[in-house]
Structures are given as structure tokens and as C-alpha cells.
Amino acid sequence: MSQVVEKIRLRVAEKTTLTPHVVGVRLVSEAGELPPAEPGAHVEVTLRNGISRQYSVVPSPTRGDWCVAVLREADGRGGSAYIHDKLAVGDVVEATKPRSLFPLEEALEYLFLAGGIGITPFLSMIEEAERRERPWNLVYTGKSAETMAYASALQSRYGERVSIHETLGGTRIDCASVISAHPRAEVYCCGPSSFIDGVKTATEAAKREVHVEHFHGEAHPHEGEQAFELELVDTGITLMVPADRTALDVVDDAGVFVPSSCREGTCGTCETPVLSGEIDHRDVVLSAKEKAQNSCMMLCVSRAAAGTSRVRIKL
Ligand code: FES
């Protein structure tokens, strides 16, 4: 079976409009102290509508609470709309303990590249870089400054170490120039896929490393999915994955252990070798080349491709 994740009951203590499309939510524990969150850590919040989503923990001026910032996603799975439209002060939600898949390594200097709501993990990372007394710079891109939560607060607090890049006029950030301007810095990037792709291309060309955090993969079945057979070759069983369930949930119910963490196609924990059957890859872990090789799949999000009725996996 998948790992049982301990959940903490939290009460919504405050909900604040940060921009027309971003709300801040402050969560307090119903049972005393909360575990600390490492810089860049996230919590997975489960809402009353059953949807779970991951949010970076934003530093809070008060101790003993967690704050998250939530962008209303027009094409999301309903989690952000629920938080914006229905979640109210006093409501109870459940959350996992903070987990860090995007840790701030020791480095001489940092360059943080944020796209839109991808700013959130950097808020705690900046505080940590300050604590370590390491130089850092933040480049924060978004449509316009007023749509970018925290832009003015960061600029007034940290001055020219924060540069704001507005894309409203169609100007894309020149990632190569930004990266070459900070030759000694360890590069961290979070934002939409298109932004991350641009940063990855630039860092690859410059033979530099980049630490990346994606928001989330294309999670959970949509309407109109197809059921498919999943043959667990080592276990010797074949399972039916219905249209409305994930392969990971079905395998889990069958009592076969697959380690998992994000369950959104972002961490790579549930990667499983594929022996045959074409896969519709929906994770953000594998590169395009790896997806084309079709030799493994993330069971939490990926499914049989259209026209494939049976997938055989090494499990
Ligand atoms: S559990 Fe994270 S990719 Fe599947």
C-alpha cells in the first residue's frame, strides 16, 4: 500500500486578498504547535470538497501558523476556485506536515527566478539566505506589478536585490542575460512550465545547474478518460483502471506497495518501469525525450495512451 500520510487539522484564521487573483490564507492548528517548515517546503491541503493541493509555506510574522498564497486557476481542478469562493475564516481543513522537495542547498550566492505565483517558495528562501548571510538576487516576472503578490513588499524591503519584470507588453525576460549576470550564483526557479522551460534552456546553454520546482502536474482523471488494463508482471495480476481513478489508487487498493509522495506527477517517487503499452505521460518529472522512450511512467497521473487498452509494468 502507499504510505499513510499523517494529516493535521487546521482552522482558517485569516483570508486576505493579495491581488485580484491571489488570496493569502493563514492556517492555525486546532491542537497546539505546528511542525516547522523548512525554506521552500510545501504542505498538501485537503479541502472539504475532497480536493488536495500543494502550497508552499509562506513565512508568517506570527509563530505557530502556516500561511499559503493561492492563485485562482482558470483551468484548475477546482481547488483554487474552492479556496477563493467558498473557504471562509473558521473553516477546518486538513494538511500534511511540511515537506521539502525544493531545499535551499548551501551556496556562496543565490539567484532566485520566480514566475507569477512561483514566488511563494522564495519568500522563505530569501529569509534563509539572509540568515546565512549569503548574497542573493530575485528576478520576479508576472503580467504586471499589481498582479504580483508580494512585489511591492519585497522591493521596499530589499531594494535593488529584487527586480520586477512585467510581461504585459509582450516582453519576455532574457533568461540568458540574467543568468550570465550572476556567474557564481546557484540558480533556483519556480513558475509556470513555459517560464521554467526558458530558464532550463538558458542554464543548459550556459552549462549551469538549476533547481526547479513545478507547481503541479496534470493530475487526476478528467472527464472522458478511458479505462485500461494494467498488468503487474512481477506480481502476476492484472487490474482494471477505471476512467475515474488513477493507476496508483488501483494498485494501492490491490495491496501492492508503490512509494508515493506528491500524487500530482511532480516528485518522481512513484516512477515504475513500463514493459509494453503506450503511455500518455502527464507528469512534469520526465523530459520530453524520456517520455518518448516510454520506458517508465508515474502511476499517480499517467495513463494508457488513446488506443492502448493494456499496459504492462514491472511491479
Ligand atoms: S507520487 Fe509524485 S510523481 Fe507520483
UniProtKB/TrEMBL annotation:
Keyword tRNA-binding: no
E.C. number(s) listed in UniProt: 1.-.-.-
Pfam families (UniProt xref): Fer2
InterPro entries documented for this protein: 2Fe-2S_ferredoxin-like_sf, 2Fe-2S_ferredoxin-type, 2Fe2S_fd_BS, Beta-grasp_dom_sf, FAD-bd_FR_type, FNR_nucleotide-bd, MRET, Riboflavin_synthase-like_b-brl
Location of the 2Fe-2S ferredoxin-type domain: 228-315
Gene Ontology MF term list: oxidoreductase activity
Ranges for domain FAD-binding FR-type: 5-105
CDD domains on file: fer2, PDR_like
Keyword match Metal-binding: yes
Enzyme class, UniProt record, top EC level: oxidoreductase
UniProtKB keywords: 2Fe-2S, Flavoprotein, Iron, Iron-sulfur, Metal-binding, Oxidoreductase
Coiled coil: none
Protein's name according to its UniProt entry: PDR/VanB family oxidoreductase
Organism: Paraburkholderia sabiae
